[in-house]
Amino acid sequence: MSKIETIGIVGAGQMGGGIAHVSALAGYKVLIYDVGAERIETGIATISGNMARQVASGKLEEQVRKDAMARISAAPDMAGLAGADLVIEAATEDEAVKRKIFAQLCPLLNPEAILATNTSSISITRLASTTDRPERFIGIHFMNPVPVMKLVELVRGIATDDRTFEASKGYVAQLDKTATVSEDFPAFIVNRILLPMINEAIYTLYEGVGSVEAIDTAMKLGANHPMGPLQLADFIGLDTCLSIMQVLHDGLSDSKYRPCPLLVKYVEAGWLGRKAGRGFYDYRGEHPVPTR
Ligand SMILES: CC(=O)CC(=O)SCCNC(=O)CCNC(=O)[C@H](O)C(C)(C)COP(=O)(O)OP(=O)(O)OC[C@H]1O[C@@H](n2cnc3c(N)ncnc32)[C@H](O)[C@@H]1OP(=O)(O)O
Ligand SMILES: NC(=O)C1=CN([C@@H]2O[C@H](COP(=O)(O)OP(=O)(O)OC[C@H]3O[C@@H](n4cnc5c(N)ncnc54)[C@H](OP(=O)(O)O)[C@@H]3O)[C@@H](O)[C@H]2O)C=CC1
């Protein structure tokens, strides 16, 4: 594998945008693809806004922001990712969606290119087996918000080779982030622990133990969490939270991972959290207002 210089990203949502942001700041060329040109434009505008906030708070020089933004370009179609040395898939947390992406993407890529997924929970071995390069397939799992969070989980599938693992480790180090290695089991380390806590907070709401505000205040002030669990669920995206719980429930066959019916109801309503304008809080006004 030659040196990683260009990163391709599939999915210009909150995670794809964040990965593009930190990769461009670390000096990589970034190509970003999503299903519609409008989505890519919105994604790039969000990155620009986030970098501008970093400039305003003195974390970044204006020239550094400009140079980094100049390294990011839109890939109008998947073929636009052909020149990437490492492609990171950061599309919706849905196995069928990811499989379809890999089927379309693999024939377009350089045979030597590494293919990574930012999945929060899905088996790396299973995803890898649907590609033409299980040896060069790996989980590179970033945390949200990517520019702020120091951790990246690296997850090897059964076939991932050492060169792919070492190159991925080098990429994470270049981003100035800390890598931990997780075995390929449902939801890896962070989400195996975090999501049952969030799901339990939703049960606590469902059973009327506390209101949205009481639960979040209790965990912020009582356990020193930076965000309450319901605020964090909205921040992650309730569709993503539900998918992770389903993967845990199916993959470990234990009823303790049963997704809370209230979480299912919010997702069915399209109340997906911050990105949809409404979840456990309504974000459409000046301040978030609890929806229960
Ligand atoms: C689901 C999965 O698969 C895995 C996951 O990611 S699970 C989720 C993991 N993430 C968490 O648990 C996040 C928990 N929350 C937090 O740590 C904090 O609330 C937070 C860092 C998100 C925000 O911190 P805060 O102090 O409440 O707010 P705020 O002052 O607005 O932000 C802190 C800094 O982060 C920066 N920031 C926040 N979001 C940012 C973004 N997207 N891009 C760049 N900078 C960002 C802010 O600009 C701010 O910088 P300054 O200190 O220079 O002003
Ligand atoms: N949210 C979080 O806190 C974290 C999420 N992750 C993981 O990162 C991935 C992305 O999550 P996140 O960014 O939050 O989700 P978002 O919903 O913000 O973004 C997903 C993006 O992928 C796009 N997309 C859907 N299908 C395709 C496709 N076939 N080709 C290209 N793009 C597509 C979506 O478009 P459209 O909206 O039109 O469907 C959307 O723009 C998931 O696997 C998630 O589990 C990992 C760590 C943390």
From TrEMBL:
It comes from the Bacteria. Residues 188-283 form the 3-hydroxyacyl-CoA dehydrogenase C-terminal domain. One of its GO terms (molecular function) is 3-hydroxybutyryl-CoA dehydrogenase activity. Transmembrane segments: none annotated. Residues 6-184 form the 3-hydroxyacyl-CoA dehydrogenase NAD binding domain. Coiled coil: none annotated. Keywords: Oxidoreductase. Its EC number is 1.1.1.157. Belongs to the 3-hydroxyacyl-CoA dehydrogenase family. This is 3-hydroxybutyryl-CoA dehydrogenase. The lineage of its organism: Bacteria, Pseudomonadati, Pseudomonadota, Alphaproteobacteria, Hyphomicrobiales.
